[in-house]
Design a protein that fits this description.
- By secondary structure, the protein is of the alpha/beta class.
- The chain folds into two domains: 2-312, ABC transporter transmembrane region fold (Up-down Bundle); 331-572, Rossmann fold (3-Layer(aba) Sandwich), CATH 3.40.50.
- It is built from 19 helices and ten strands.
- α8 runs antiparallel to α9 and α15 runs parallel beside α16 (500-515).
- The relative contact order is 0.08.
- Residues 573-582 have low confidence and may be disordered.
């Protein structure tokens, strides 16, 4: 574990220095106890030899003072280093996270990342500052004392060493069980935390169902499972823990018996016997405490594993000579096949082209691969086969910054940061001029929202944009796309869940985006108002292209697009003639 910590920690030198300081403290503590041997020889002699005891007492007093000074130094230094190291490790994790594929960030991995950055790093640093010194003391002090016991009487030293392998074997088994129990409890605790968060976030739904106070059966089941695992863990760790304590106790009893036998047989002087018994107690005491530290060590190892798992996640491969300038904004899928992990392919041999300055609508049932296409254009992940090109260049050959500057994405589920409306819009391009900012807000119909808010642009949107309605959040997101002035815009079903008023405003904003002849747009939509503005339509079914063409062409064929149009046409009141005119 020490090698893993040194390899992982951003400042391993500091960790080594802290370890060396605590080793020195433990060795000094052990040596101070060995001073009992000459002191007891002097005080238990006949007559008492105070002169012989005085220098050893003076050395002991100086050693105690030195130990106290080192402890005063080590304690604040250890905690300060712990905080610095935790901050450095968090920065390393976040820096690595920024290199990971955008497709990696699903609900589960985001929760795991949040817990690792906040809890695991803090837990690891605290364990090093608090548990580390205790572990060092529990191992180094006994090693120092057993050396002294060997020097004083090799038979007693050999007896203590003979019990060590048994104690280590029992302790290792106890450690393995503690690790398994800790991992099970961690899973149960994570589930309880998720259900508790659900209790707070889903109160309207839970109250409507009569579970506002209890959180429903999922929370109760999570609490019951946590309690069961905790009780089961206690039972599993009880026997190994008692076994280790038994080994330590047997070693002490054997030490007493052997020391008494040697004393009665005249082979061990009384001062040596008294000193040996004191040293034996001090030898066995930290060993007994070591078993209690096993749980903490395993918790440290689990936290270490969670951090390593994220750092082992590989970023998307970077091109040796990345292209930093787009030759155009046309988008091409050439025989693209892609699957998420080991699941069935989300796309199968998909080929189509979006000419520069045009709008392409993606339609199809849920799970047909529409969102996957949008994600692959922005290189959330790399294709399994085929090529995705922008301006004739494979997106895998593009510089990441160039790609991200060239693409603006508006998703159905908009996330806003807990700041002002203006800060959330300017996030896309902080250096936008006031005129550019105002024009983006007008084009996105966001200025109408801001005008009726008391604090205007300084209105705080709340966590995730909770203070705004869904339509208002979408307008902020579209304003970001406008102010970014990206030549490629990807829109994922942005108006599907809006009320009629907001839908109309958002549709108008989308129309303005699509009307720019210098902008290439891919839009996932089923609404007639969006579909009629598209230059081309690609209809997908089960990851394959079912049909493609202009809206008018596909309407005449009576295929998938025509069916989708008819279903939405009845609900919306839009009408498209066979020649494509409204």
């Amino acid at each position: 574990m020490i090698r893993r910590l040194l390899a992982l920690w951003p400042q391993p030198g500091l960790l080594v220095k802290l370890g060396a300081l605590h080793v020195a403290l433990s060795v000094l503590q052990g040596l101070l106890f060995t001073l009992l041997i000459p002191i007891l020889h002097a005080l238990l002699s006949d007559p008492v030899d105070f002169a012989a005891a005085t220098p050893w007492l003076a050395i002991g007093a100086a050693g105690v003072l030195l130990h106290w000074l080192l402890t005063v130094i080590a304690t604040p230094v250890g905690f300060a280093a712990s905080m610095r190291l935790a901050a450095a490790l968090r920065r390393r994790l976040m820096a690595h996270t920024t290199t990971l594929p955008l497709g990696w960030f699903d609900a589960a991995t985001k929760a795991r990342l949040g817990r690792t950055v906040t809890a695991s790093t803090g837990e690891l640093s605290r364990l090093i500052a608090q548990l580390g010194p205790q572990v060092v003391q529990a191992t180094v002090v006994p090693l120092t004392l057993v050396t002294a016991i060997f020097v004083l009487d090799w038979r007693l030293g050999l007896l203590l060493l003979a019990t060590t392998p048994i104690a280590v074997a029992v302790m290792r088994r106890s450690g393995r069980i503690a690790a398994e129990v800790n991992e099970e409890l961690d899973e149960a605790t994570t589930e309880v935390a998720g259900r508790a968060l659900e209790l707070g976030q889903a109160q309207p739904v839970l109250r409507a169902a009569g579970y506002g106070e209890t959180g429903g059966h999922r929370l109760r089941d999570a609490l019951d499972e946590h309690r069961l695992r905790y009780r089961r863990g206690l039972r599993r760790t009880l026997v190994p823990g008692l076994g280790y304590a038994g080994v330590v106790l047997v070693a002490f009893v054997a030490m007493l018996v052997l020391a008494a036998a040697l004393l009665l047989g005249g082979d061990l002087p009384v001062p040596d016997a008294v000193a040996l018994l004191v040293l034996a107690v001090r030898y066995l005491e930290p060993l007994g405490a070591l078993n209690g530290l096993i749980g903490g060590l395993r918790a440290l190892e689990n936290a270490l594993g969670r951090i390593e798992a994220i750092l082992r996640t590989a970023p998307l491969p970077a091109a040796a000579s990345p292209v930093r300038d787009l030759a155009g904004t046309d988008i091409e899928f050439d025989g693209v096949t892609f699957s998420y992990g080991d699941s069935a392919p989300a796309l199968r041999s998909v080929s189509f082209r979006c000419p520069a300055g045009t709008t392409t609508a993606l339609v199809g049932p849920s799970g047909s691969g529409k969102t996957t296409i949008v994600r692959l254009v922005a290189r959330f992940a790399d294709v399994n086969a085929g090529v995705v090109r922008i301006g004739g260049t494979d997106v895998r050959e593009l510089d990441d910054d160039t790609l991200m500057r060239s693409v603006a994405i508006v998703f159905q589920d908009v996330y806003l940061f807990d700041g002002t409306i203006e800060e959330n819009v300017r996030l896309a391009r902080p250096d936008a001029t006031e005129a550019e900012f105002a024009e983006a807000a007008r084009a996105a119909r966001l200025d109408e929202v801001v005008a009726r808010l008391p604090d205007g642009w300084r209105t705080r949107v709340g966590e995730g944009g909770a203070q705004l309605s869904g339509g208002e959040r979408q307008r902020v997101s579209i304003a970001r796309a406008f102010v970014k002035q990206a030549p490629i815009v990807l829109l994922d079903e942005v108006s599907s869940a809006l009320d009629p008023e907001n839908e109309s405003m958002v549709q108008a904003a989308i129309a303005d985006l699509c009307a720019d002849p210098d902008r290439t747009v891919i839009v996932i939509a089923h609404r007639p108002g969006t579909l009629t503005g598209a230059d081309h339509v690609v209809a997908l079914d089960s990851g394959e292209i079912a049909e493609r063409g202009t809206p008018a062409e596909l309407l005449r064929t009576g295929g998938m697009f025509a069916r989708i149009w008819t279903q939405n046409d009845r609900a919306s009141g839009w009408h498209l003639a066979k020649d494509g005119r409204m």
